[in-house]
Amino acid sequence: MARRSFILHPSSLILLAAALLLSGCGFHLRGPANLPFDTMYVQAAPTSLFATQFKRAVSAGSQTRITNDPKDAQVTLQILGEAREKQILSLSGAGRVSEFRLRYRVAYRLTDSKNVERLPSGEIVLQRDFAFNDQQVLSKESEEALLYRDMQNDAVQQLVRRLQAAKLEVKS
């Protein structure tokens, strides 16, 4: 009977070392959001895609229930404003735009059922730079729309994390 020896490939050793380092550093997936309130009303413009996406994220990723009536809610999140901005960042030697800076802003405020501010008025501002080529207008428009959608997703996640830090009075 032939004897077999077990030899690890060098790439297997690197993968094993990386797995051990990650497990030892305390890394873990974010998991569900633990918001400090049970019910929430979101006050925003009826056409706000941000508000719709935020409601979906809270409903799917936390125990907090979104209500349709502010009287039934423990807190009210007011989306005070939402804006998309586009700024020329640089020009080519021929005077044509070669880069844009996109900004996405969301202003918000959190109040409780007694209209006491629990999270002061704040704003989330995100920006992305992208190269522009007027020979590829359609693809660059698609890229711009994708960047705005990405910034909106980021803003939703940032707002959820900020709401996790909100403090409410404990009734005894």
As residue ranges, the low-confidence spans are none
Question: What form results from the Cα inertia axes?
Answer: flat
Order of helices and strands: HEHEEEEH
Q: What average pLDDT do the residues reach? A: 84
Helicity range: 25-40%
How many beta strands in the DSSP annotation?
A: 5
Query: How are the strands of the largest sheet arranged?
Result: 2-1-3-4-5
- Number of helical stretches of at least 4 residues: 3
Distance between the termini: 76 Å
Measured by DSSP, the beta-strand proportion falls in 25-35%
- Indicate the radius of gyration in whole angstroms: 24 Å
Helix-strand category: alpha/beta
Major beta sheet, specifics? 5 strands, mixed
Describe this structure in words.
This protein is an alpha/beta fold and 172 residues long. The protein is 33% helix and 33% strand. The protein has 3 helices and 5 strands. Strands 2-1-3-4-5 form a 5-stranded mixed β-sheet, with helices on one face. Strand 4 (97-112) and strand 5 form a beta hairpin. Helix 2 packs across helix 3.
Structural topology:
Layout: H1 10-24, E1 39-43, H2 49-61, E2 65-67, E3 75-91, E4 97-112, E5 117-131, H3 137-164
Parallel strand pairs: 1-2, 1-3
Antiparallel strand pairs: 3-4, 4-5
Helix pairs in contact: 2-3
Give the key terms.
single chain; 172 residues; alpha/beta
Summarize the model shown:
This protein is an alpha/beta fold and 172 residues long. Helix content is 33%, strand content 33%.
